[in-house]
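Open question from group meeting: does this chain pack into something compact, or does most of it stay loose? Before anyone orders reagents, we agreed to write out a predicted structure and look at it together. Recording both the input and the output here so the notebook holds the full record.
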Amino acid sequence: MRKRSVLFIGITALLMSCNQTKTDLTSDKEDITKATNLQDIDAYTLMKNNCYVCHNPKAVSHDSLLAPPFVAVKRRYSMQYTNKEEFVDAVINWATNPSKEKALMRGAVNQFNVMPPLPLDKEILKDIATYIYENEVEKPEWFDTHFNEMHPKGMGKGKGKGMKNN
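Structure tokens returned:
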């Protein structure tokens, strides 16, 4: 019962904090088949229900998102945190206390601003972060083109440089 209350509060807070979504969330039965076991299905459902409000991989373009897609988040966090424990801890720390100073994805923060702190139980955040680390996350159809434009040599365009000084 407590998890449902926390989940409801989290979803409500996200909806209110994002003002309005620019994309429609869709319910694809195929998505669930990407999870390999019941634990993954639960974690995938938690991620989809709590995070896709802003990080929706079904968005028609980068401009229709409220936050970067998880494929970009996973890529960046995997570069910084090479093992599961560090990756999961970093995602939880960001989700519970995001700040411009702690941002790894500075270009995304410049474009989307800092996300609101998520009022979700740390166990739920751990399940979501673990799912992201262990599984291939959905990639928007337009992602590769956008990524190659923004990172022509696999690097950022420098939009985050000097951000701490701003």
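Observations to bring back to the group:
Helices lie at 2-17, 29-32, 38-55, 70-80, 84-96, 106-112, 122-134, 143-150.
The chain has eight helices and no strands.
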